[in-house]
Structure formats: C-alpha cells, structure tokens
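Researcher: I'd like a candidate sequence for this fold, 180 residues long. If you have to choose between options at a position, lean toward the conservative one.
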C-alpha cells in the first residue's frame, strides 16, 4: 500500500491541480470538523475525485507539519548537508515555473508532471539524489536506483554542494525534460 500511496501523492498535482501540501493548507484554513464535510468540499468545490479527496482528507489529519517542519526534521543532526539540499533546490527551481517541491516525512519529491527527482538525507554525511531518466546507462557516479526502487531509475550520492556540478545539473535537466 505504501508504494500506491506514494504514487498517488506524486500524481496529485497533475490530477487535482494542487500538491498534497497545498490541499493540506486549504483544509487547515477551512477547519472542517468531520471527514465527510471536507470530502464534500473537495469534490463539490474543486472537482476532486473521490479517491484523491479521501486520501487528501485522511493525510491532512495525519500530520499537520508544514513543509519547512518536514525538511527541518529530515536534516536534524545532519545540518552539514543543508547547503547541498539548498543548492539542489536552487538548480531545479530555475528549470521552470512548473517545478513542484513536495517535502515528505523522509525525503523531498521534485515534480514536473511526474516526479523526476527525489532528495533524501541518507546518512549524517550523505544525500542520495534519486533521478528518473529511463534508458540512461549507469556510470560510476550515476548508479542504479538502489534503495529508491522503481520510484527512480538512478541514484547519485552527494556529500558537498561542490558536487552539484555541470554533469549533475545536466542529469537533473534531462530528468526534468523527460517528466514533461
């Protein structure tokens, strides 16, 4: 079920027009007391399908952490990796206004129409950057997806912001372009 839920969250911006974080903010502002009221609002006012509405309402009650809270928690005791994370964000945000950054509990999804990158602090000294670039051969640096499984096709291990170089930016750009 976990994989199906992640796929649904990744597809949410394309299918509903907003990311899970955006929907959580809207529901928080409305302050619905009952699950059914929030469902009726999402389906009636926003045309969200039943399955997505149910998922949005359920997840909005589960954890009211903001995106910043989620990222702060991910990098607790891993503060040396924050410059790497920020550099990656600054790169992908320049690709276009259609880039959506979606922090989750343990990682940050980077989405266009589909997820094309995933940033995960793997250890205290390393970020694993997952990329989705189908049919791209692996190299010593551009490894197979490893722990990301089918969510990504490749993984790059990063320890410093300097490693966000032209080669890596080109891979990110390729993944972005294929996600359109």
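Model: Candidate sequence:
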């Amino acid at each position: 079920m976990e994989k199906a839920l992640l796929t649904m969250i990744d597809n949410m911006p394309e299918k509903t027009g907003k990311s899970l974080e955006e929907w959580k903010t809207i529901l928080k502002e409305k302050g619905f007391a009952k699950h059914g009221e929030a469902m009726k609002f999402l389906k009636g006012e926003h045309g969200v399908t039943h399955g997505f509405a149910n998922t949005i309402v359920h997840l909005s009650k589960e954890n009211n952490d903001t995106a910043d809270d989620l990222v702060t928690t991910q990098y607790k005791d891993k503060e040396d990796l924050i410059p790497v994370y920020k550099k990656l964000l600054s790169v992908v945000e320049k690709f276009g206004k259609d880039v959506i950054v979606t922090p989750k509990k343990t990682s940050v999804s980077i989405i266009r129409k589909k997820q094309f990158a995933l940033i995960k602090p793997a250890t205290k000294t390393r970020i694993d950057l997952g990329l989705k670039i189908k049919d791209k051969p692996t190299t010593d640096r551009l490894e197979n997806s490893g722990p990301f499984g089918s969510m990504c096709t490749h993984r790059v291990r990063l320890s410093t912001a300097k490693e966000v170089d032209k080669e890596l930016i080109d891979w990110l750009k390729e993944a972005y372009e294929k996600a359109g």
